[in-house]
């Protein structure tokens, strides 16, 4: 029992402790004694407002930790500690679900719009084919002279009317009419040019004959 006033009875006194390696080394002496002051010096300076704790002196505000079967029973009674999900994580999960649902709805809306557009275009194309084929069938009642005026022949109309129902037969007739009418216009221009050339040649011949002196028979 230390005497009152001795260094060991003071709560601020430090007790040096001896560290020995396995095998009994190092030998006895004071050079291997590690003091708390040396440990404090190795720890470095304190942060502003921090308090250094001396391991040799227990803190007054630190509760003793229960050891043995009492602490084991308390830990077993409380059960395993399961961390509860934090509120930001729950918010993030909800936001992710909303984003996924909104992206799915947007893709579904785009797909539906594309399908409706394609279906509408197909319906319009079929209606136009049916209308054009009806007009082609009406051309069968025309005579050859009327068809020639638009650049067609009765054979062209019959071939167009015999094409499959999924094909727009008026396209072929339109191409044939344009080509034949263009050919007829080209032939008309060539004939006009030839006529002008012949007229110019006849005019030169008349002028030459008029300039030739007349000879009288004796």
From TrEMBL:
Domain of life: Bacteria
UniProt-listed InterPro entries: YjiS-like
YjiS-like domain location: 126-158
Pfam families: YjiS-like
Low complexity bias: start-end ranges: 1-15, 38-48
Spans annotated as Disordered: 1-65
Residue ranges the record marks as coiled coil: none
Protein name: YjiS-like domain-containing protein
Species assigned in the record: Rhodobium orientis
């Amino acid at each position: 029992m230390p005497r009152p006033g001795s260094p060991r009875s003071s709560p601020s006194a430090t007790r040096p402790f001896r560290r020995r390696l396995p095998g009994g080394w190092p030998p006895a002496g004071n050079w291997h004694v590690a003091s708390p002051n040396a440990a404090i010096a190795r720890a470095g300076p304190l942060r502003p407002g921090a308090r250094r704790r001396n391991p040799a002196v227990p803190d007054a505000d630190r509760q003793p930790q229960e050891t043995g079967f009492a602490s084991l029973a308390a830990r077993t009674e409380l059960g395993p500690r399961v961390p509860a999900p934090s509120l930001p994580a729950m918010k993030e999960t909800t936001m992710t679900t909303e984003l996924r649902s909104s992206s799915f709805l947007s893709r579904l809306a785009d797909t539906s719009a594309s399908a409706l557009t394609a279906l509408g275009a197909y319906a319009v194309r079929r209606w136009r084919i049916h209308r054009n084929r009806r007009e082609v069938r009406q051309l069968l009642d025309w005579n050859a002279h009327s068809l020639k005026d638009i650049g067609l022949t009765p054979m062209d109309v019959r071939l167009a009317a015999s094409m499959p129902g999924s094909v727009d037969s008026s396209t072929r007739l339109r191409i044939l009419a344009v080509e034949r009418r263009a050919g007829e216009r080209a032939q008309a221009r060539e004939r006009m040019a030839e006529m002008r050339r012949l007229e110019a040649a006849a005019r030169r011949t008349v002028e030459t004959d008029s300039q030739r002196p007349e000879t009288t028979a004796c």
